[in-house]
Amino acid sequence: MKYKFIWLFIAVLCSSAAFAQITVKGSVKDKTALPIPGANIIVKGSGVSASTDFDGKYTIVVPNKDAQLLFSFMGFTTKTITVADRTTIDVVLEQAGQSLEEVVVVGYGTMKKKDVTTSISSVKGKDLQTMTVGNATESLQGKVSGVQVTGQGGPGAQPRVLIRGISTLNLSTDPLYVVDGVPMGNSINFLSNNEIESMDVLKDASASAIYGSRASNGVILITTKRGKIGKPKFNIDLSNGFQMMDNPYNMADGETYANIMSTAGHSDYFPNTGQYRYRGQTTDWWGAGMRKASPVRNASIGVTGGSEKNTYAASLNYYKSDSFYGVGGWERITARIANDFKFSDKVSVGITLNPRFETWGSPGNWADFDKIDPLTPIYKPADQLNGTENEYSIYARSPSYVWNPVAAVARYDDYTDQYNLNTNAYLQYEPIKGLVLRTQGSIEVGDKTQSIFKPDFIIDAAHEKEEINSVQRKNTTNHDWTWQTTATYTKTFAQKHNMSLMVGATMEEYNGNDVWGYGEGVPNNSDLMRELKAATKNRSSDGNSWSSSLLSYLSRLSYNYDGKYYLTGSFRRDGSSKFMADNKWANFPAASASWRISNESFMENTKDVINNLSLKAGWGKVGNQGLPDAVYQSNIGQGYYVIGGEVVNTSFPSSMANRDIKWETVEDVNFGLDFGLFRNKISGTIEYYEKTTKDMLFLKQFPTSSGFPENARMWTNVGSMKSNGIDLILSYKDKKGAFSYGADFTFTTVNVEMISLSADGEKLYGSDSRTLTVEGDVPGYFYGYVADGLFQNQTELNSHTDEHGTKLQDKAQEGDIRFKDLDGDGKLTDNDRTKIGSPWADYTMGLNFNFAYKGFDLIANFYSSIGNDIVNQNISDLYNAASLTNKVAGLQDMAWHGEGTSNYVPRLSRNDDNQNYIKFSSLYVEDGSFVRMKNLQIGYTFLNQFGLDKLRLSLSGQNLWTWTNYTGVDPEVAGGDANKGDRVKGAGFGGWNYPVQPTILIGLNVGF
Amino acid sequence: MKKIKFLFFLAFFAVLFIGCQDNEDDFPTSEKPTLALGSTEIYGAPSRKFEIKAALADDLGLKSVRIQIPELSLDKVIAFGTEPLVTAYDLSYFFEIPADRGTSEAFKIKLTLTDVSNNSVDQDINLRLDGEFTPPAVAMDTPKEGAVILLPSSNIMKVKFMVNDDSGIDFVHVTCTALLIDDLVEVNGAQSYTFDKEYILPRTDASYVLTITTKDKFVQPNTGTTEINVIASNDYPAIYLCDQPKGTNLTTDAVGVPMYFHDKNGQDFEFKYYADKDNKEIYFLGQEGDFAPHCFGADGTNLAYGSSVAPIKLPTKGYYKIKMNPKALTFSFEKYTPTSKVWADIANGQWHDDEALRRPFVSVCGGGIKDASWDTWNGWVQTGLHLANNPNNPYQLVGEYTLTGTMEATFTGQWWNPSWRLIKNGIATMSPGENGNAKYPAAPGVYKVIVDTELERAFITKK
Q1: Interface predicted TM-score (ipTM) of this complex, two decimals
Q2: Contact A450, A473 (CB under 8 A)
Q3: B18 within a domain of the structure (yes/no)
Q4: Model pTM?
Q5: Which top-rank group of organisms is this from (chain B) (predicted)?
Q6: Do A805 and B77 lie within an 8 Å CB cutoff?
Q7: What residues in chain B have their Cβ under 8 A from chain A's Cβ atoms?
Q8: Is the pLDDT of residue A627 over 90?
Q9: Is omega for the bond preceding B143 within 30 degrees of 0, making it cis?
Q10: Are residues B351 and B330 in the same domain?
């Protein structure tokens, strides 16, 4: 009744305009006479539109008999019908030539998917939006073959994205992200899922070479939503839920802990009697400091619409993910306003504004909640307080030397705010048919402020204190601009020769500066005083600025004969400020070809079965210039030396410029087969690729004879590596009556091998000498001793000798690890270390199901990584009783305590004289394979009800189940510390990493 | 028919495949290996290693030898390589008897030798635990290790020591190449013997090494050697300041007691010293390890010499500069106020990559110290190694370390700044200072550590 009233009211208001109008009704069905719910009907040129209900029926008001109706639905061919004298129009839409007619972004242009000769995978925004994630690449996981996404838990964490494995050892492995044609670096944390129209992944060099010097890790092209002709369409998308954080370990209670420590020999703390007195004394640290569920919220409101002259799209997006500490998290607010104007058939312009705000910061000490001993109380007992302590000094100190984690969270004050504004505009002119001149400019300005305050406190005068408080603030600003101009000419000759030529030039400049201030002795710890100005002691400051630029020329020529034989060539010439005159410029050519066999006449008879079959091959060269901005400079270092008995601040030459430094180059070949069967019910692509990296960039040490200090380094080009593998994507979709279903399967293999290093036999160690990179093997494999079980008895101990009876492990006892003497020299030395695992997966897989029946839909996404190993660094924390930190419950039974009781967990010992845990061995290496259900979502959609075009309710669970033999926190373990050059050489080390959390969400999507 | 053909080919290739496999164990038959024992009876003792010797041989190649003493949990297999084959091998295998075994026990050692043709031979060896393995014990009366013989007083070196051995002494042999001493005494099985003899020394400054070799009369004779370093000098080469009461064992410290002099000009020695209380009593010693033979104390305002001298008393607590001349028998001292840098508040140190945020701490890098390594980061994270300020003396950094054996150390903060390298004679030289960390033998145990930054000395004494 209420809706009728509203409609009546609106109808009265509009009555004056409705005199000459005609109401048209009808239905929209497919070839099998099944209704198509949600199909769009637009009155051409007016902005009036409607959509069909579940029965495929619609009603729309048109201005006159000459009005033209556009009927469209995804996957079907759009149909245009003139109304004439009819008031009922029933339409049958035909399925389009499936995805082959879809447009793919290829870098500085677009192509129809069927015309693409290179390796490009595409994902629609709606497929990404099925998940609520902070970083859009996380929902890419498993949906694209050749792309390995390793999630990183924690608010604001950036997933590791590898496109066809790794091609560098020392530089970044992240792909280049290009948003609406503008290179945006190696992270898209700033982008909301709801802003994305599509993602196109350029996987091979013949596709990505058009991005030249930054394309060696692949390129991800992101197209954001733009306006569409029609009346204003509002869309509201809300999802709300919580992330769950269960303790990954069952830690010992007070009594068990005391028993473990007593057994290990900590008799000074826990004499070997009477542990029962600790019964019931356990401090629930986890419960005191960690929230089992932390909220995550996503909200987006947008509007699109426009006329043939002007279209617009605007959206406001909000995302917030709280940390599980109860303080901190990540919050992001972005807006995107896109306007496109068509002044005439020849001139069009567009502008996009994208203001953004992000704030983040959260403690990182969740491991301490497990590691601190369970007998220490959270707060000091009353008799240890004298009333003069400040609020941060009332906490108890643990004899385990783990700082009180509840106190650490209470002290936490380290937050970063970031503001950005991106303005992106273009002007397009088509002077003659087929020739498009386009120029596009983008300006990005940003401001980031990190504020840290550390209050003073004394929990323990010797071990846990900060006697003076301190405040620091760092402000970083950046202003970057890009300008690109292209001319594209497309022409068909003699009906069968189709040609397109694009030439262009781009300029980019990236500038930044920072300033940092620090001071101590703020009069008190109150929030209002946490300012640098309030610091009374030891003030210091620092600051720097940097800049880099890139000038490029680019071109691409595409040709096909009769839609059967395709050739594409591209060429880019990059000049970078990072390199000196001799190597400032580099060329990145690429070529590819394909043969669309299914268009041959001899395939005519197979059309019912094989509707698409295409062979393709590509070759290209791309580069990696991802090294610091000023490597062409010689640098002066600073240090303190004692001269004449006084400590003197000194300067010294710390590094020397390498005039010959140049790009790291990746050369790549790709062979592929695209196929579509049974009217594309089954479709897929299988590709083989091979990449060779040359002139790899290494930071090498000077010979000490040069006079430079030992820590002086110089970037230099040495070594090469090779990788190859197979990408496969297989899709199936069908419809039985109102029931439609589909499945996508992605499969990727990566084999990588170092071909050469700077010298024969060179050994490159990483991650504190726990990984090794040598010629002829995978980079960064785990390198350590082989743990050959435990000594079960004295006879085994006595037999572990050299040929003269000298014990290989003279401090070993029964229950200790037996390390293998691999070189057989009768000694256990560094030479007995060997390859004990690899962080690189043999293959990764994704499996995505979708089902729909009338208003119901169900989506399930699975992701799997198989064959990689992980170093579980927590083994020492959890099993090694040398320290007084807490251990896992039941350790006294798990650990060796007599012959045959364990062949894995060594005996409990406070000394670890045998170095069971100090020696890096296969004890720590575990199978890291896993299968994870990334997303399970069920939804119900109401169409044209409640006065709305669309109302969808959904319930989803993300990361709900993981199957793995890995005993650590989370099997999604990414690269090492990039700041130490260990991104690749330190990959696969799991520890107390913030886990990817199971998340439950309810969603509401409204369109009107 | 097709089925039969298929089965035929399947069987054919299966036989072919199996026949082509490389079977490394397939060696022709050969003669048995030979096992010649070094001895059929071996003496051992609890907590002591014994050696099993045998000559192993085979005409084709040895595969393995197995050594078994089930009662002592020994079951060792030594496998020989096959490329190339080993045809002869001298077995020399040591094994330590567990400490809890009795000296009256005896066991059989079973040796099993196998060749590559899988021929085996066994032999047994008798193992007795009533062996005696210590060489005759030498108890030095004079000279003591490091003794200084002052030539102006006497150029006679009296050598006197006692030798004891339960199984009887075979001989005692005293040699010194520089002094042409070569005295061999046949003792003929007596369980005790006293050597007492005097030698004349040249009246020139020199260092001598006296070597005493003894041998007992056990079935498997034991020989021992003792070396004594002696300095003959017209002057004292060094003087040590000792603040311990007479009779104190001066060899239990790791370093610093007694304290080596700071400066020397002829026989004028100068010390810097911190008296930690009023009326602190000190002596001067002519040798490091004992109060005898050269001990100096006070006789009023003069320096006195002799075993019964009274100590010198420093009247009040504080730093002193002390001068003495052992030949002129003079001494003097004056109190002073240090002006060197005070390393205050080191217990509140902070490791930080950013120098501006760094605060000095002092820990230790080195060897023979539990939890220590040569990594300054380890020095930071091992908070048990951190030194603290002595609340009673800002120039002293104090702590407690567990020593595990011969030690060497550099007391250091982040990246060797600041640092004090422990060189010879207990000198803790502040960086850059002198090079070369000295090694100090120390009995395992817990030690008190004092680093005096004013004196640049370290004192590491058993707790």
Answers
A1: 0.71
A2: yes
A3: no
A4: 0.77
A5: Bacteria
A6: no
A7: 49, 72-78, 92-95, 340-341, 347-348, 355-357, 383, 388, 417-418, 430-432
A8: no
A9: yes
A10: no
